[in-house]
Design brief:
Blueprint: H1 7-14, H2 20-33, E1 39-44, H3 50-57, E2 60-66, H4 69-82, E3 87-90, E4 102-107, H5 118-130, E5 132-143, H6 145-152, E6 156-160, E7 164-173, E8 178-188, E9 194-204, H7 208-217, E10 221-227, E11 240-246
Parallel strand pairs: 1-2, 1-4, 2-3, 4-5
Antiparallel strand pairs: 5-11, 6-7, 7-8, 8-9, 10-11
Helix pairs in contact: 2-3, 5-7
Amino acid sequence: MEQYTNFAKVYDLFMDNVPYNKWVQQIKDILQAENIYDGLVCDLGCGTGTITESLANSGYDMIGIDNSYDMLDVATEKKFESGHDILYLCQDMREFELYGTVKAIVSRCDSLNYIQSLKDLKHVFALVNNYLDPNGLFIFDMNTVYKYQNILSDNTFAEVRDAASFIWDNSYDSEKRINEYDLNLFIKLEGNTYKRFEERHVQRAFTFEEIVSAVESSKMVLESYVDADNLKAVSECTERILFVAREKGK
């Protein structure tokens, strides 16, 4: 089953509890501390373009990359409504290409957890480094092993809205650190009928040490890391870590 096909139609509906404004402000604070107030910025794994649009609204020249045509269709609709000159590219982040370098690359909402091997993660980070300006920044977050083991593992989540509902079943393999979740969507059609759709998503839990090794192998330098939820020091109960890495040579 493909990921983010039918889910794209209702993705924003169910993500209205995600603190996008806080995340965008975190990104802007990091960029502006480096006197980056404009210029090219790439949103890697941009989804429906919520963060991309917000950064464009703040004066950045945005490029959005995602491997889902359906998600990018929604992002493109937002672009037409806002009038922002955003370049959207449908590419796998493991093979993404840009036309030149950018001041920063951002990747939020655990997009990088969809990478399923350390080898591929290192390759993605090498591509990031390749497309960053000298001393450019890579701002990204990733879910922790703790989150998969203690929050998501073998749990079922459900939510009911007027326009759509979902049932989200998780299955976590602690040895492989692979989390599979089956998503059953019920989307309202005309005439008050609902159609069921199914998707399967697979994410990988990387250890902190693996993430650091991926940064180092790419020749970037890890500048900082904090708990993404409160910007405090990372603890054993941290669910998502926000990292900042810097380009230091190709």
